[in-house]
C-alpha cells in the first residue's frame, strides 16, 4: 500500500503539474489574446480618434466650403452686375465706334475733296506764278528799254543844254562880222 499511495501521490503530483502546465499555457494564450485585444483596442481607439479628427476636419472644411460657396455666389452676383454694366458699355462703345467709323468715312471724303481742290488750286497758283514771271520778264524788258531811252534822253538834254549855252553865249557877244555859226555836235 505504501507503494500504491506513493504512486497515487506521484500520480496526483504529476496531474497537478500537468494541470499547472495546462493553466500556464492557457494563461499565456489568454494573456497573448488579452494583449492582442488591448493592442486592437488601442488601435481602434487611435483609429476612432483619427476618424473623429478627420470628421472634425471635414466638418471644418465643409463649413469653410459653405462659406466659400456663399462668398463665391456673392462674387458671382457682383460679377453678373458688372457684366451687365460692361455689356451696356460695350453696346455704347459699339454704337460710338459705328458713329466714329461713319464720321471717319465722311472726314476721309472731305479730306480727299480738299486735297483735290488743293491740287487744283496749286495748279492755278503754278500757272499764276508762270504768268507773273512772264509779266515780270516783260516789265524788266520795258524797264531796260526805259533806262536805255532815259539814257538817250539824258544825252539829248545834255546836248541841248550845250547848244543852248552856246547860242546864249553867241547872242551875248557883240555883233561881229559875219562868221559862220558853229554846228552843234551830235552823236
Describe the protein's architecture and organization.
The structure is a single chain. This protein is mainly alpha-helical and 187 residues long. The chain is 91% helix and 0% strand. It is built from 1 helix and no strands. The protein is rod-shaped and about 235 Å long.
Topology:
Layout lengths: L1 H171 L15
Order of helices and strands: H
Number of helices: 1
Q: What average pLDDT do the residues reach?
A: 89
Largest sheet: none
Number of strands: 0
Strand content: under 5%
Q: Are there runs of 5+ residues with pLDDT below 50, and where?
A: none
Helix content: over 70%
Structural class: mainly alpha
Summarize the structure.
This protein is mostly helical. It has one helix at 2-172.
Amino acid at each position: 500500500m505504501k507503494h500504491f499511495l506513493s504512486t497515487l501521490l506521484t500520480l496526483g503530483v504529476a496531474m497537478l503539474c500537468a494541470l499547472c502546465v495546462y493553466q500556464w499555457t492557457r494563461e499565456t494564450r489568454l494573456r497573448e489574446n488579452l494583449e492582442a485585444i488591448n493592442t486592437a483596442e488601442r488601435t481602434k481607439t487611435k483609429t476612432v480618434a483619427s476618424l473623429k479628427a478627420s470628421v472634425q476636419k471635414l466638418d471644418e472644411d465643409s463649413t469653410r466650403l459653405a462659406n466659400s460657396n456663399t462668398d463665391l455666389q456673392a462674387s458671382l452676383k457682383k460679377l453678373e452686375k458688372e457684366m451687365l454694366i460692361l455689356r451696356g458699355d460695350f453696346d455704347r462703345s459699339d454704337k460710338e465706334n459705328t458713329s466714329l467709323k461713319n464720321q471717319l468715312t465722311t472726314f476721309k471724303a472731305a479730306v480727299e475733296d480738299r486735297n483735290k481742290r488743293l491740287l487744283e488750286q496749286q495748279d492755278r497758283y503754278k500757272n499764276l506764278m508762270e504768268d507773273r514771271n512772264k509779266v515780270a520778264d516783260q516789265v524788266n524788258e520795258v524797264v531796260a528799254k526805259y533806262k536805255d531811252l532815259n539814257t538817250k534822253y539824258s544825252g539829248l538834254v545834255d546836248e541841248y543844254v550845250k547848244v543852248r549855252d552856246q547860242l546864249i553865249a553867241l547872242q551875248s557877244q557883240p555883233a561881229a562880222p559875219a562868221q559862220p555859226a558853229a554846228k552843234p555836235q551830235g552823236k
